[in-house]
Specification:
Number of strands: 5
Helix content: 40-55%
Shape: globular
Strand content: 15-25%
Largest sheet: 5 strands, mixed
Number of helices: 7
Structural class: alpha/beta
Distance between the termini: 36 Å
Length: 150
């Protein structure tokens, strides 16, 4: 990533996606896939509710919207929330080189496992992301626990 583009700036795109998902009545998790120069490849949000598809998490939506590439080692997955095991598996399966996590307070997914397996992981503890998820979990606990598989 170039010195001119910060992790916080990249997170802004994922945060916009999370807000869009929430406005659509869904779960407020957003993601975006960038190349190592900070160019946006794809963006998306959790669409489980909107599309009635339990596999359409934010990271998978962003990944699908990015289209095919020969390789992903030089890409950065940015997500507002620590990726679940399913999305962490996507990162490993396709060899995504870096993950930026907005927050891991409300859900501690597989980012430690990713780091242990060579993925460059940055957890920002972004207060906007923490606040949005905390409010959502308080207001929609059944939907939240359905999403995380509890």
């Amino acid at each position: 990533m170039t010195a001119m583009i910060t992790a916080e700036q990249l997170l802004g795109t994922a945060y916009e996606e999370a807000r869009l998902g929430l406005a659509q009545g869904g779960i407020p998790i957003g993601a975006a896939l960038f190349d190592s120069n900070g160019n946006l490849l794809g963006r998306g949000h959790n669409r489980r509710v909107q599309d009635d598809d339990p596999s359409l998490h934010a990271e998978t939506d962003a990944f699908r919207n990015a289209g095919r590439r020969r390789g992903y080692r030089d890409t950065i997955m940015v997500t507002t929330l620590s990726p679940c095991w399913y999305c962490s598996g996507l990162v490993r399966q396709f060899g995504i080189g870096a993950v930026i996590v907005g927050e891991a307070r409300t859900f501690h997914g597989g980012h430690d496992w990713l780091a242990d397996n060579g993925v460059d992981v940055t957890v920002l503890d972004d207060q906007r992301c923490v606040g949005m998820m905390t409010r959502f979990i308080t207001e929609q606990p059944q939907l939240w626990y359905e999403d995380i598989g509890d």
